[in-house]
Amino acid sequence: MKKKINIAVIGCSGMAEGHMYGVTDNKEKANLYAICDIDPERLALRKEKFNLDIAVSDYRELVNDPNVDAAVIVTPDQLHLEMTVAFLRAGKDVLCEKPMALSVAECEEMMRAEKETGKKLMIGQVCRCTPAFVQAKELIDEGKIGDLFFVESEYAHDYSRIGGYNNWRITPERHGFIGGGCHAVDLLRWIAGNPTEVCAYSNHKCLTSWPVDDATIAIYKFPNNVIGKVFASIGCKRGYTMRSAFYGTKGTIICDNTSPTMQLFENKDPNSETDFTEPQEIEVNINNHNVSEELRMFIDALQGGGEMPISSMEGASTIAVACATVESSKNQTPVKIKYPTL
Ligand SMILES: NC(=O)c1ccc[n+]([C@@H]2O[C@H](COP(=O)([O-])OP(=O)(O)OC[C@H]3O[C@@H](n4cnc5c(N)ncnc54)[C@H](O)[C@@H]3O)[C@@H](O)[C@H]2O)c1
Asked: For the domain 131-286+320-336, what is the CATH code?
């Protein structure tokens, strides 16, 4: 076993606390070495909770600390680029929260820093750790529902009370489809591959004081003649969920990240196209922010020297799709999706 990885978590929100537990859950392999936040109360709260010696308000102190091996960035989206590049260029590995950044150009700058330093960058697209979605992907990959023909996911949230620290979510550059809708886009990309084209519409009826449209519907062309759709709302009046469905020629999976079961419809006779069973209810753990698994994957990949399980190219490709979707909804025209080439 290699030496324990000293990890610094940047940001001290409730979400960041999940990442701190993610590190301490893996304490045989990693050590929660330091934390950082500009908010003194949040910083003090987590310093005490995790019994830490090092808690700073300026992340650059940790960039320059030779004892830090890796950083987990859980700060407002607008800071992901600056902080990730600073840690990579200082020779640290990085796990950066989703969305990787707010434009493809920013993502490419982060990927350039990763390539030039040889350090590793993983993106926290946490749906790839959500039990129901992991199981859906396994069933699809083993051919349980036949040949996929339609995939859909939604990101239904109400941001009216979660503008974030200093209202960082309420800015024109942080479009809800990029910041939140990226979860649903990433889930569909993970299952069905990179869409080639998008056509989207949006409106602005719920969060009328916000500077961006709050609801978007997008349809996509995926490889292998699969079609798909994402609906994202950041102002809808219902409980948060990511209701998703995957339709294949021999079955259908309906699942989300907030229910204790998922449904599988399957042909009783796999060679028949005309019968189907009653839905089978499959029990799943509800763990819609399974950052502990995300940290386990990150730490194991660092210890094992392998590729990052959710690579920077994956994070950047999701942003490419999300940005093309916003462009399509603004221009009311289909858009061909351009992926990063680094
Ligand atoms: N994976 C998920 O499902 C999920 C869920 C929530 C948030 N997020 C992501 O996590 C990130 C943080 O979101 P949040 O909900 O924790 O936001 P938040 O506003 O609750 O917390 C952000 C924290 O960052 C701190 N901060 C701001 N500027 C800083 C700086 N220069 N240096 C150090 N600390 C600084 C703030 O003081 C605050 O404590 C965002 O990128 C968001 O998109 C992901």
From this structure: 3.30.360.10
